[in-house]
Amino acid sequence: MKTVHDIQILDNVPVLVRAPLNVPIEKGKVADDYRLRRAVPTIEYLAKRGARVILISHIGDAGTETLKPVADALGNLIKNVSFCDVTIGEKARAAVRALPAGHVLVLENLRRNVGEKKNSKEFAKELAMLGDVFVQDSFDTCHRAHASMVTLPTLLPSYAGLLLEEEIAALTDALSPKYPSLAVIGGAKFATKEVLLERLLEKYDHIFVAGALANDFFKAKGYEVGKSLVSHAVDTHIAKMLKNPKFIVPIDVRVVRSGILPVPTNARIAAVEDVHADDIILDLGPATEMLLEELVPSMKTILWNGPLGKYEDRFVDATHALAEAVAKSNAHSVVGGGDTVAALETLKILKKFSFVSTGGGAMLDLLAKGTLPGIEALG
User: Fold this and answer.
1) Residues paired with 185 in a beta bridge
2) pLDDT (tens digit, 9 = 90+) per residue, 194-237?
3) How far apart are CA 36 and CA 365, in angstroms?
4) Chain-centre distance for alpha carbon 343
5) What is the pTM of this model?
6) DSSP 108
7) Which end of the chain, N or C, is less packed with Cβ atoms under 10 Å?
């Protein structure tokens, strides 16, 4: 795979960069600029060598959001950033022509055009008209077969950016952990994680499941899960995994009764066998936190993706407890997932982790499959 280091000529060359600009926006401003900070090295590498850097990205899922606040925030991190309120067409081409060497132009949200998610070749051709070279640096979206990810790279000389190169190297290394090792997988939907869990069972000494994913395991063990989120997983598949002594399942949880406002102050701590039919499991309990805190210090490698509870509803206790335990350890720690990274930022301990991925689903898919559509497209 060729990287930006392999680009022979950059001076005054229009370089189209698929950048990781999908960041949370609150009240019209960027709420967390972690991905932007990680995007800077590739942008600066190109700009300092005289390239005309054109950034393309999506933001949000609705297709109506704007990248204008992201461009403003990026302007606080690097110099000479401007914004164009369209993605393709004559106005976008004119903005590229007017862009001085060493400057950066952010184009509007790719998903405002339905061709992006539909992987339209015509849309990809319109994008290709904007640059002479393409750089893929949006690892967080490399698991999506969208136009800018898989078709655009086939239309221009294409290279991996510095961030994408770093992500691939770090996550590939994570599949060869130093022992003893611990993998912590949160989130939901066993069906989307079954292949990953099977692969981790081959590589890691301990596999801990958390979040809504743990509810599937409780159910397979015959425990009551009440009104908690569960997937339609085949229990026999999970039951087979549970026979493996490497699996660690939570021993207690924080629950809120159905119909009661789901906030931490309304939570009851319950052993996993003491969940009621009208309960909703929203976080792990203190006994499970202690179990992890006792295990973590002896680990040489820790891989973690996904919060341990419903983080967006402020059920953060177990996630924060694990984050602090890993930060204090001497383990090589590899972490990813939006809420997980947000926890590290909140606790101001992000720099204490060996590698923090910009990907959530992309990280899990790369670990499970060894490659991603956006990486394959680079040839």
Assistant:
1) 209, 305
2) 999 999 999 999 999 999 999 999 999 999 999 999 987 666 78
3) 22
4) 13
5) 0.94
6) P
7) C
